[in-house]
Structures are given as C-alpha cells and as structure tokens.
Amino acid sequence: MIDNKRKIDIVFAVGPVPLMAAVCKVTKPYNIKTIVSLNPIMVDATGMCGACRVQVGGRTKFACVDGPEFDGHQVDFDTLMKRLRIYTDSETEEGKKGAQAEPCKMDEEKTETYKKVEEELMSQQTVLKEGEKRIKIPRQIMPQQSAKSRIENFGEVPFGYTVEQAQREATRCIQCKKPLCYEGCPVNIDIPAFIKLIGEGDFIGAARKIKETNGLPAVCGRVCPQEDQCEKVCIVGKKSDPVCIGNLERFVADYEREHGDEYIPEIPEKTGHKIAVVGSGPAGLTVAGDLAKMGHEVIIFETLHKAGGVLVYGIPEFRLPKDIVQSEVDYLIKLGVKVELNSVIGKIETVDELLNDGFDAVFLGTGAGLPMFMRIPGENLNGVYSANEYLTRINLMKAYDPDYETPVLRKKKVAVLGGGNVAMDSARTALRLGGEDVYVVYRRSRKEMPARIDEVHHGEEEGLIFKFLMNPIRILGDDKGWVKGMECIRMELGEPDQSGRRRPIPIAGSETILDVECVIVAIGNGPNPLIPTTTPGLETSKRGNIVADEETGVTSKKGVFAGGDIVTGAATVILAM
C-alpha cells in the first residue's frame, strides 16, 4: 500500500513482538502513526509481575497499567525482545536444580530447639520460686531455625512460643494502670487484658480479646514493627527489655487456629446495604470484616488469583506463611464476606459501574504496588528487577518451588538497593535462591534504616553484606544486555531532610564498582494508578494518592471511601488497617 502511494493515516499492529517491531520499522520513515498492542499475559494493574515492563519514549511503562496500546515508534523493541528472552536459558537449568533439591531438615531442628527451650525454662524456675519481681524475669526468646539451616529453605524462621514460654513472658507484664502500650497500638488492642488472660491460661479468651479490634492477629503478630509502636512505650522496657507483645499476639492467634476453636461472633440482622471492597490487602480485609460484623453484605474484588494483597505477593514465606494469610481470609468468609478473584476493577468494571450495579458504597484499598526505579543508566538491562517483580514471582507464583514453572533468575552475586523491609525481604530471598555475595546497598547509615531491627539482625546472621553510605549511579552491562556490575558512589550525611533523617550527600571522586550479576530495586512503591485514572471526580494528591478523610475514609466522590497505602503511601500492615 505504501509503494502504491496510498494515503495511510494510522496503522494498528497486533501480534508477535518481532512482527510489530517490523511494522514500525516500515512505517516510521513515512511518519505514519502506528499503534502497537502489547497485551500482557497477567494483568495485575500495577506492573508487579514485571513481565510487561517496557521502555516507551525513554520512560519505564507497564503494559497492564499504561497500555496495552502504545505509540510503536516510541517503543524500545530491542530492549523489549531481550527481556522476553530473559528466561529462555534459565528455565531448564532451574528445573534441574529443583529436581536435585535436598529434603528440608527444619522439623528435626524444630524438635531439637524446643527441647533446649524446655531445659532453659526448667533452669529458670528457681527465679520464680525465690519470688523475684516480674520485671526481672528474663525476656523469653522465641525459638527459631539456625541461620545455617534456614538459608536452605523457605520455612518460617521463628517457631513460635511454647505454652510455658508464653505464660512466662505474660508474667513480665506489670498491668499498668495507665497502659501506654494501648496508645502505642495503631488499632488500640487492649494489650494488658489479653496478656493477663494468657497468664491465666485462657488462650482462647486472649485471642478473642485481640479480635475485638484487630481482625488479623496472626499476621500482625509476625510482621508489625512492635519495637516502634506498642513495645517502644512499654513501661517494663524502661528498666529492662519490654514485654514481647508481638510474640504473645502471634502465640494466641496460632493457638486458636491450631486448636480449631475459632470464635465466630453473632452477626446482627442484615441491614440490606451492599458494599464493594476493592483490594484484599490489610486495609481491604479489615474493612470487609468490620462491615460484615455490622450486618452489611460485603463483596471483595481482588485483581490477583489469590486473596491477601501485599501479604501474599510481597512478604516471603519465611516471614509470613501463606497458609496464615489464607486462614485470615477464610475467617472473613465464615463471617459472610464474598471474595471475587481475578477481578480488575478499573479494567473489567469501573467504580461508577459498581455504584450503578446496586452497591451502596465502594471502599478502595488498592494499595501502593507501582514499582519505583532510580532512573539511572542500565536499569533496563536483563537481570534488573523491581522488588515487586522479584518477590511476586517467588511469593505468589512460587518460583522457589520445583513443582512450579515460574522462572526467576538465580544469581550468585546480587545487589539489593534500599534499606526498608522490602529490601531485606528481597536480599534474604536471594540468599535462599543460592546467592553467595548478596549486598544491601543503602545510601544512609544503619541507624537510618527503616527496616525492622529483627529483620536486619536475621539478615546479618544469614550472611548479608551491608554497604552503607553508598548509592548506585550506573548499572553496567555486557554486549548481550545482561548485568555485569554496578558503579556506586560513597555518601556522607548532611543536615536532616523532610523525613527527619540526615540527607545523604555524594563524596566526589569516591566512585567504585560492585561486581554483581543481578540488581533488585527496592526503593519504594507508588500508589496504584488504575482506580484514580478511571474514576472521574475522585481527588488525588500530587503523588497520586487518593485524598480521603483520616477518620472516616470519605473521598471527594459520593459513596466512595478509601484507606490504607492508596491514601497514606506505602506503610506498615497495621497502619493500613
């Protein structure tokens, strides 16, 4: 048609990537507008799986968020086709490794560890018999896998308290008349009350007391930063170690689940109101449970094939087992909540359509799952992951399990950029996938790291290499487009910035090369843009977060409420609740 000089205003190309690239190559010299359709296999609406990452006009885009249609002349097809071939050689090799995997010895270690705990408790009995004050009772250390053992498996690191340990730890609580721990808890759990019940041996009663204000105790007991919240203000901590509130919360939640004595509250008469909850992360699950207990009909719409949001795709099995999350979801179902999976609101149906289809209100809890990158040279090389993609492949799609076909790169030399919990999760995961030199590259000092103290400590035990006061400036690649190193510059701390932490300043002439084969970018996530961009009248901030009242969750759009990370930005599980 071009040879016949026929006028062509626009061309649409749909098909294999090489053919679409060829079409664009033909039309570009004639300035014929060409639209290509980069249809992703998995639509998560955040780009978290990473498979649909593409460079368009020099900017990182995701086909499931920004597409699938793009200006073909702006698409970097060379980089795209290299990404599409990234796992061709590795899949067969990983299958071989999986077939040769040795059986896990975690259960044997667990039994042996508990024996040591019992011996330790017996040796401490004289303390109580001699009438020592509660405040002098030693803090009970939760039994856990050894570092040498746990880097060989994805089993949960801490085994949990024994009954004796839990009761002994509970006796350390002095039952303050004005408990600061209650105020330190974002959801105001009656902490002294549930700990007292543990001391009395009423573990089921303790679990029910927690559930009065917290619908996810087994989750929060494992992943909440208690050291910065309830335990930080514990009065016992003024003269000794604070009471292990998080460990006790985990204990009673696990006890209730394992003994099959789960309490289902009496649901009031149905109100006739129908509520849609978009997203099944911490915010969505909490809201759904609270509304169901009020008698409302609640339906959760979840984009992925499994409910739980960041709890299932973002947090590794060794920190939060997925059966724990599923048990919390099952509890909501027992309350009458319905869960619709594979439902991408904003794609298959809009918020306005939900309101027009009989829902009286819509709660938006879609989280902050859009990966951020550093925008430095080399970020599009093969072997560069966003932490979301890396963790999603492993946690949600079980790339670590030889029974699953999900591919993921297993490299010996890995750099993880960032200093938060996501960075620690990524780095510790890389170790378990065979990493030998796994670096955590953080531009500030250890003191400024936002990651949980326990996670940093566990990472050190496992062999992570911390590169503090260092910042990447360029990722180096070989002639085939694969990562072969990373250039960094050393930093020094200046005056505090808006976050209250001292601002990192580059030291001129201090550049150095880090020998790595894989780079995982864990510097934060942005708000999910799909709902705001498909919902007219919904006010957002400059950063793309939905503007909502802090107390009520009311947004600028009638009938629409929002909460969690989509409002506050990426934060902790308990704050999302």
Automatic annotation (TrEMBL):
The FAD/NAD(P)-binding domain sits at 274-573
UniProt xrefs under Pfam families: DHODB_Fe-S_bind, Fer4_20, Pyr_redox_2
Enumerate the GO terms in the molecular function aspect. Answer: iron-sulfur cluster binding; oxidoreductase activity
Q: Which residue intervals define the domain Dihydroprymidine dehydrogenase in the entry?
A: 150-260
Indicate the segments forming the Dihydroorotate dehydrogenase electron transfer subunit iron-sulphur cluster binding domain, all copies.
39-76
Q: Which InterPro entries match?
A: Dihydroorotate_DH_Fe-S-bd (IPR019480), DPD_II (IPR028261), FAD/NAD-bd_sf (IPR036188), FAD/NAD-binding_dom (IPR023753), FNR_nucleotide-bd (IPR039261), Helical_ferredxn (IPR009051), SudA-like (IPR006004)
NCBIfam families in the record:
gltA
What's the name of the protein?
A: Uncharacterized protein
Record organism: marine sediment metagenome
